[in-house]
Amino acid sequence: MIRDALGIAIASGAYALSFGAIATTSGLSLLQTVSLSLLMFTGASQFALVGIIGSGGSLWAGAATAALLGTRNALYGVRLSSLLKVSGLRRFGAAQFVIDETTAMAIARDDENVGRFAFWATGLLLFAFWNLGTLIGALATNALPDPKVLGLDAAPPAAYLALLAPRLRAREPLAIALAAGLVALICIPFVPAGIPLLIVAGLVALYGLFGKSA
Amino acid sequence: MIWAGLLVASAACYGLKLAGLSLPPRWLQDARIQRTVPLLPVALLAALIATQTFSSGQHLVLDVRAAALGVAVIAVLLRAPFLVVIVSAAATAALLRLL
């Protein structure tokens, strides 16, 4: 169990290295970069926010996109709440660890105690490695005279793709991904940078809420 | 100004996590919400890929970033680790700019 949690944490440390590098290339200061990993601590939202800032999109469209990408954590919280049974101050601490990896490790355990232990072990280790990786990636990139020479400004779409790929195992999400990409491209000439993302989010929300269920 | 955006977005992300743990579960167990929320990251990540690969401001452009994305697609299809996907895309852009 600890070994699994440690493996996940080390892998996330590698993600975080690239986050630190991409955030720094996007123009964030060292303090801004490490603060995001400490305070936001949810990978896709962090990559999206710095990617949008780096590509010259609206800061507030970036913040909204980060929040929309964080909505899934609320559903994870619902699944975890009956397992964790946290109250008071512990709930405020536990909340920061409610992400994909901790949820996957904690649920589907036969024993609730094991599930709780898996949540906290994964959360603490991942938090440590995520922030350490971010710091190292940001420091290393800050030491470079021009990170764009390494092509780091072209890296965010690769990060999104790596985060997206595991979600495309069925036909509906694949179709939605292709349609979303196409709609975003069509919107680009007509609205300020960053806004196509919000249009896509609105359309998919309408589809999910009011479309026929698959 | 950037700080304001970072802090507001971080607070929103934390608030969503805390809401999940704190709200009565039935509020979020509505079938339409359960169905819609997982679609958001799929659509947004795809839209992020499209806009940050093929646009500059409000202009559609085709440049080295498209080649970088192509290499990233191959790396993902080969099940390469996250860091390899990122590095291969960045290296592709860097090398093509040298040409």
Protein model, in words:
- The complex is a heterodimer of chains A (214) and B (99).
- Chain A is mainly α.
- Chain A folds into 2 domains: 2-153, no CATH class; 168-214.
- Helix content of chain A is 74%, strand content 0%.
- Chain A has helices at 2-25, 30-39, 43-54, 59-69, 71-84, 89-96, 100-106, 112-142, 156-164, 171-187, 195-210.
- In chain A, helix 3 (43-54) runs antiparallel to helix 4.
- By secondary structure, chain B is mainly α.
- Chain B has helices at residues 2-22, 25-28, 31-36, 39-54, 64-77, 82-98; strands at 55-56, 59-60.
- A two-stranded antiparallel sheet of chain B has the order 1-2.
- The longest helix of chain B has 21 residues, at 2-22.
Features:
heterodimer; A: 214 residues; mainly alpha; B: 99 residues; 6 helices; 2 strands
Low-confidence segments of chain B, given as residue ranges, are none
What helical percentage do the residues of chain A reach? over 70%
**Strands of chain A, total number:** 0
Beta content of chain A? under 5%
Q: By helix and strand content of chain A, what is the structural category?
A: mainly alpha
Compute the number of helices of chain A. Answer: 11
Question: What percent of residues of chain B are in strands?
Answer: under 5%
Overall 3D geometry of chain A? globular
**Share of helix of chain B, binned:** over 70%
Q: How far apart, in Å, are the first and last alpha carbons of chain B?
A: 38 Å
SS elements, strand count of chain B: 2
